[in-house]
ATP-dependent 6-phosphofructokinase
Amino acid sequence: MPKISKIAVLTSGGDAPGMNACIRAVVRTAIHHGLEVYGIRQGYQGMINNDMEQMQARSVSNILNLGGTILKTARCLDFHKDEGMEKAYQNLKAKGIEGIVVIGGDGTFTGALRFSKKYPDIKVIGVPGTIDNDLYGSTYTLGFDTATNTVIEAIDKIRDTADAHDRLFFIEVMGRDSGAIALRAGISCGAEAILLPEKETAIEELIAGIKAGHYNSKSSSIVIVAEGDKNGGVYNVSEAVKKEVSHYDIKVTILGHLQRGGSPSAFDRVLGSRLGFAAVNALTAGQSQKMVGLQANVVVLTDLEEALNQHEFNLEPDLLQMAEVLSI
Ligand SMILES: Nc1ncnc2c1ncn2[C@@H]1O[C@H](COP(=O)(O)OP(=O)(O)OP(=O)(O)O)[C@@H](O)[C@H]1O
Ligand SMILES: O=P(O)(O)OC[C@H]1O[C@](O)(CO)[C@@H](O)[C@@H]1O
Ligand SMILES: [Mg+2]
């Protein structure tokens, strides 16, 4: 097997805390192996625009603690098209880059797999980097822990004021297709109800639960609504409840993008370092079209194809059941 000598790294899709730790690990592990390593800016857009630069050990000094991504990220429509992919390929070939580490979510991996099938001489390894925790093959994705901690810090504060005023709050958290943040945050903050894209909740059922809570002397209530819940969004849900529930003053809070920012937790710093290290080791071992992930605290490789096909992510049934039991 010919030895790989030049690789590149990019971040793509929504940023996630811990991406910088991962970039640092990729750069320094590559240097350890004697490889040249390039940083590509703005995800696939930078591949198309030839926006990439060689990185050194010092290029990634003092970034472990930073949220966001020093390489920047993008949602790049041009990469969906054959012409965009061809341009990206030619740019990589011109630099002699033979392998790339792509840090991102399911969309990023879909693009990477398509690209690598079209141009198999460029090896690709994916690192699951998304606050959504919606990838098969890794129990946790990079950024999910930090984002969930950010969310619970915010909800704890809302609980204080909700309790002081005997109010009912509807809080929207991120997750267009994933209820992972909503479920963990709901359990951590003792939410009275959690609305998730993966599980339908009838509005009548929600209203009955809120009324029962009031009857059982709850002074405040928190309902967490994941962005992707199928009831038409947090305002729709709150309006529907308002018509039937008069004993609470009702408020809505959308946490929004503050959930994606901030300094990564220790967990995400270690996870990012570990997966970045493993990704480069996989490239030097000749692997391609794989994702590195964490399962039972062991780093494992999963075929990108399998990770994407199994994408339907099932939230832990015991957590769903427990959240209901404990919220009485
Ligand atoms: N079918 C596809 N073909 C080519 N490229 C794709 C495809 N799907 C996604 N991509 C590329 O991957 C990028 C990132 O995908 P997407 O915006 O879905 O985010 P993601 O990686 O899933 O992360 P997150 O969900 O955390 O924001 C897209 O902007 C696009 O450049
Ligand atoms: O910042 P954007 O592009 O609006 O994306 C928001 C989406 O990205 C995510 O934060 C994942 O990165 C989703 O939870 C959310 O639906
Ligand atoms: Mg995604």
Remarks:
- Residues 13-14, 75, 130-132, 174-176, 227, 260 surround 6-O-phosphono-beta-D-fructofuranose (ligand 2) (CB under 6 Å).
- The longest strand covers residues 167-173.
